[in-house]
Amino acid sequence: MIAVGAWKSVDKSQLVGALLLVALGAFVAADAWRWPYLTKDGPGPGFFPLWIGIALIVLSGAQIVVQVATSRDGKDAGRTSWKGAAPVLAGWVALMVAAALIRPAGFVASYALLTIFLIRFVFQRSWTAAVTVSLTSAAGFWVLFVKLLRVQLPAGPWGF
Predict the structure, then answer these.
(1) Which of 3, 28, 92, 93 lies at a CB distance of 3.0 to 4.6 Å from 53, suitable for a disulfide?
(2) Sign of CA dihedral 32, 88, 124, 101
């Protein structure tokens, strides 16, 4: 049984993060129910989102259990260090901006801009490295998906 005071020693940032991921998993799994699970050709559009949602719920729930089970018997865990939060939050914001840019700019341009931002500002590498990795990986994605696998990616005003 978990002591009432055990919650004091749980790292609040870990707990909040895990709870948010449980909520995200529940949203993804619930949304996947609207799509066909299987089609005559195999897995339908709801197959992978459902299992990804379930995995998020299970793994995040396990993280909560581990956090509580390894808490230090009611001793205060202290303040959460937010020193490393800025790059993580910047990465999440950049990912949301890139997702919003997919329709007007296309997948390749959106991915290239996201990669440049992450490499240059989050990982603090040179502009040369950021642009080189961004352009080569974006071109690689385009060749792999559009040319080799014939998957239609959202195209921007430049045709790719």
Answers:
(1) 28
(2) positive
User: pLDDT tens, position by position, for the chain (160 residues)?
Assistant: 555 555 566 777 788 889 999 999 999 999 999 999 998 988 888 899 999 999 999 999 999 888 888 776 555 555 656 677 788 889 989 999 999 999 999 999 999 999 999 999 999 999 999 999 999 999 999 999 999 988 888 998 988 7
Residues 8 and 64 in one domain: yes
| Predicted TM-score of the model (pTM) | 0.59
Please, what is the Cα angle at 141 between 137 and 147, to 5 degrees? 140
1/49 Cα distance (integer angstroms) = 34
Q: Between the CA of residue 135 and those of 98, 99, 110, 155, what are the distances in Å?
A: 15, 18, 11, 16
Same domain, 65 and 89: no
Tokens in use for 45? 């559009």
Residue ending a domain, choose from 28, 43, 69: 69
CA distance 85 to 17: 12
